Amino acid sequence: MVAVLANPLSAVACETGTITASPALIDLYFNAYEAVYSRDVTAQPDGTTYISTGDIKAEWLRDSSAVARAELRFASTDRTVAQMVRGVIARQAHYILLDAYANAFSEDYRVVERKFEADSLLYPISLAYDYWHETGDASIFDGTESLAFDRVLSVLRDEQRHATRSQYRHADLPSGGRGARVAFTGMVWSGFRPSDDPCRYGYNIPVNMFAAVVMRRLTEIEQRVYRNERQAENAWGLSVQVQRGVESYARFSVSGFGSVYAYEVDGLGHRLLMDDANVPSLLSIPHFGYLPASDETYRATRRFVLSGQNPYFYTGAVAQGIGSPHTPAGYVWPLALVMQAFTAADDEELARVLGYIAASDTGDHVLHESFDADNPEQFTRASFAWPNALYTELISSLQPKTDTNSPGFEECFNGISTRS
């Protein structure tokens, strides 16, 4: 059964008029919304919600959290949306208890892919926290959710000391599936990146930044909801250790940029200076709350990852932006373009990036996984829910949430309307 969700028109209004959307951006907004929430989100007989990643018929913990999060702006006023998000949260808890080292699952609760990515355990906690704060509804925090949170903490603690405590192995990793050697840093080890590609060095920095943030959120849940001071202290302590590890091991001076964060380190002196399109990324640091966009190290890091010094930053005739080793060289990811828009330094950059997003439309009026920066007709993945959901969240974030006297969506876009 398809979940029928809120009409995006009900919450979107124009703010200042400084950013003017083209008809292409209007088509993208409506079609991205419809493609995700009418096709990929389905209510299940057990009361949960299943979110397919798109043309790959499986649910990723990360992707499904991001898709549900984009709807949170409606959750406090629309019961259908609230029920959908609650169903996602409940299903994710069952997934984690099924296998906390897996990243993707089937509609009938089977493991589809067992790549350990620490962010896959962090996203569901962040979604539950955001839903709670948006709606005030703490009923999602039942016994199953508590057990899932306990399992997450246990796994993250083991992966702080991957070499001595972890039993996880994967055929795609070196050293007999253990991964490259790492030293203890206080950070959490990951076998794979948010892109599902293997980590070169075991400590992915944006993922660990995200962990520091999410563990603080879990601390609040354990204190205020479960009244479990022991687990609250455990989560808080992990947050502190991870953040200390990040700040001690991940900062490096790069000529022309100053102090920047590396993408991966191993605690043994090796570093990887790059950024990937998938979130958490270095570009997305302010978006998930580790640092404000005004922070000097973030600003230097952002300049670096949006420059030719990042081996996965590409410039073409139509667009420029961050790609991934996951896709062909020269292919830019709309997911990274949306995140660049979220963190844009000014309206000029925002308008330019929105132009790249519009230019990526090949006529199907949805965002793809990646596209050739010289020829958007060449792209990967015709159906990918995550960037489409994030794009709808971006467009809505550009509008005021409380000004009921603001002009409507069509007026905001110069009176152009392609949907009734």
By secondary-structure content and strand pairing, the structural class works out as: mainly alpha
Number of DSSP strands?
A: 15
Helix run count? 15
Residues in β-strands, percent: 5-15%
| CATH top-level class | Mainly Alpha
CATH fold descriptor: Glycosyltransferase
* Spatial sequence of strands, sheet with the most strands: 3-4-5
Provide mean pLDDT, rounded: 91
Poorly predicted residue ranges: 1-18, 400-420
Helix % is 40-55%
Q: Categorize the overall geometry.
A: globular
Task: State the distance separating the first and last CA atoms.
Answer: 24 Å
**What is the H/E string?**
HEEEHHHEEHHHEHHEEEEHHEEEHHEEHH
Q: Could you please describe the fold and organization of this structure?
A:
By secondary structure, the chain is mostly helical. It has one domain (8-398): Glycosyltransferase (Alpha/alpha barrel). It has 15 helices and 15 strands. It has helices at residues 23-40, 61-69, 72-75, 79-98, 118-135, 143-160, 162-165, 205-224, 229-249, 285-288, 296-305, 334-342, 347-359, 385-397, 409-412; strands at residues 41-43, 49-51, 59-60, 104-105, 111-113, 203-204, 251-254, 258-261, 264-265, 271-272, 313-315, 320-322, 331-332, 370-372, 379-380. The strands form six sheets. Strands 3-4-5 form a three-stranded antiparallel sheet. The chain has a three-stranded antiparallel sheet with strand order 6-9-10. Mean pLDDT is 91; it is low at 1-18 and 400-420.
